[in-house]
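Q: Is it fine to ask for two folds in a single conversation?
A: Yes, each is treated on its own. Send the first.
Q: Here.
A: Result:
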Amino acid sequence: MAQTSRSGARRPAGRLGRRFTRRHRRLRVGLSQLLFVVAGLVLGIFVPRITVPPTVSSGRIVDLLFTAGVTVISLITVIYSLLFVVVQWVGSAFSLRLSLFRDDPIVWRAFAYSIGIFVFCFTAAFAIGNRKTVSVVVPVAALLLVLAALVFMRTLQTRALVSMLLAPNLDAITERGREILDGLYLQPAAGDSAAGAPLPPLRSTVTWPDRPAVLQQLHLGPLVTGARAAGSVVVLRQAVGVTLLSGMPIADVHGGDLGQQAILRAIVPGRERTFDQDPLLAFRLLADIALRALSPAINDPATAVQVLDCLEGLLAPLAARNATAGQVADADGVIRVMLNLPHWDDFARSCLDDIIAASADSPMVLLRTRDLLTRLGRTAPSSGQKVLASRLRWVEDTLARNHPVVWADAASARDGQPAPDPPRTPGRLT
């Protein structure tokens, strides 16, 4: 039986090429460290050869270089100490999945720069050798490099402090979530679903052959090219961010015979979810922060309200987008890959259900959730109206059952009627 796509939005491979391309984060980290080491080695060899006057005694400069090289190693200790403290704090205060500071480029750039200074100082000291004098350029260069290291350290400390605060973390998560949503859900929502062209006959289903792993990224460029050469259409059955289990189906191949390895090479597994291509991660992190705030050990409903503000800021603009699975076409405009992207109601369920369940004893959070659901109900696509209506009834029933006075006040304010006076206790002055 012919199958239809979940969306009529065709996207050329180049449009999503930058988004669905393998990110070699570890490779970039290693290359940056190698680059700074090579730069320090080259500068350490050629800077002492400069003979521009004035000159100073080389003995003192060699001692200065060795001292600076050994001292700058302490920067590495500080970097790792900050990294450990911040990661531990963020994991206990916000979410174990929150790794914004750990993945911040300033961390590994500061580390690489410190290694580069160390290499420069020791290389320059050995390059001076038995010279009696050396140009003042050498100590000036060392001083400038150390001052730049202090700037790095100041920036790193500031980022570490900011990473331990609530509002900057919420802003950062929301911004990262908005960035990926803007990159994936590009088209206005013309309707709930649009029937696409029938797919070719199903040829094979590719399953995950390895141990459990998180689907971190998709590498679509080679997959689109291979599907075009084979005359295939690949329908991905798993979304970025899910845990792949052995034997789990990951893609259906329609039409031409596209080998299993072509599909598996497009899958980038890992140990944890990342922001690179995962549209639900920001919603999951925000929900985690709200749940931790609503736990009996912390009992901080105001934080959960702040989280709901961020969630509404993400959900409201998404209602006007085409929140269905995208179709990636080749250079000829022929659909070759169909992505499995979450729908609008998937976003709403993933972030609201747990918060509603955990906020049964918090009228502040329930009222804010009620306002969120009411406003979203005016703009959400029809596919999400049922989800929002059921959650709104859930919230209102919880308010009426657990907090009848608060619910009576809220209902009166909604209807434009004054709230009734509370009953008076006989024998007491009011």
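Q: Second one now.
A: Result:
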Amino acid sequence: MSQIKSLRTGIKFKDTPIGKIPVDWEVTKLGDVATAFQNGGTPDTKIKEYWGGDIPWITGADLINQRVGQTRKYITPEGVKNSATSIVPKGSLLVVTRTGVGKLAIAPFDIAISQDISGVIPDKQKSLPNFLFWNLNYNEKKLKALKQGTSINGILREDLSSLLISLPPLPEQKKIAEILTTVDDAIEETDRIIEKTKELKKGLMQKLLTCGIGHKKFKRTEIGEIPEDWEVGKISDYGEIVTGSTPSTLVKEYYGNDFPFVSPFDLGKAKVIIKTEKYISKEGASVARMLPANTILFVCIGSTIGKTGVAGVQLATNQQINAIICEGSDFNFVYYYLSFISDKIKQIAGTQAVPIVNKSLFSNVLVVVPRLKEQQEIGKILSSVDTELEDEENHKHTLESLKKSLMQILLTGKVRVKFH
């Protein structure tokens, strides 16, 4: 992030049709900084000779997170010649102008485009592709405002060409683009780490929750092969099962800000539940069943059956949630194991209009019961992976906030970069 050290303030501004900008910046039309706009099209899908070649061809759906994702389709030179598609040169802008307006990317290689996309070839003597990319990203709302039509919303070529943008000197464009790209690359790398960590967690759960740690002898059971010294039990063997309830909404005194009141909406976002959208008062707590911290929460009614969480503080739940107050079991292990078998539990609910796994059915679901020490070891390993995931996701959030702030100040000239 050393690029960010090059920022400076103390700027004079001027009024323009797009607002205040630095006095040495210009306002220009997108068409005035492009050498060409290219249309897209789709070769006839009924003619095999047009498809399966070596020319990558994309639609708006292939632009993911402002990048070209995995190329799904390829066409032949004959497909290009006999359709409205164009091959956009590497480094040009790809602007979705139909069906997903606002999505952007820079062509990573020469690429053919569908009618959803317009190719914008920048005049590098006036504007740099990377800077235009960030400028249009920042002006996404203005792009979407250009949409016309009812059946297929789209942007007309002349409207896209007439879009007004701010234009700093070329050296400053380069520096702004470098700073924003540096932050964006860091976000992308963090995303890769998050995905790898999720894969690691999935693999560890599969191994640890079926094979345990260091076991060499296994036995066949009604729930599959498990380590020889593990037992098959019921969820009720993990602890006391409690079904939540809702204090009367007619009694205002039952609701306040003393204790979190958990509904299925609150589960699935994070492992540990500390805050919720609704709270009950001490009076409400007197008529609800309060649950201690480290209680396991499991949705058992409705379309979200299987969502699982851990009470981070004392709280209560509504009637759609069954809770397990762990007794003689490690709460981390129970959380991960129930998450692991959540789909199997969901199947018990059947296909009725309002699926339900009532307290009796839930209590009697068959589960593995390792010795407490091994439960604790498994829970500790998986918790450490979750902690790593949370750290990376928090880091990503910080970077995204930084990127948003930098776009706001750099692309408006509120803070200038040193480029001399």
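Q: Anything structural to flag on that second result?
A: Two points. The mean pLDDT is 94. The chain has three domains: 1-10+169-212+372-420, 26-167, 231-369.
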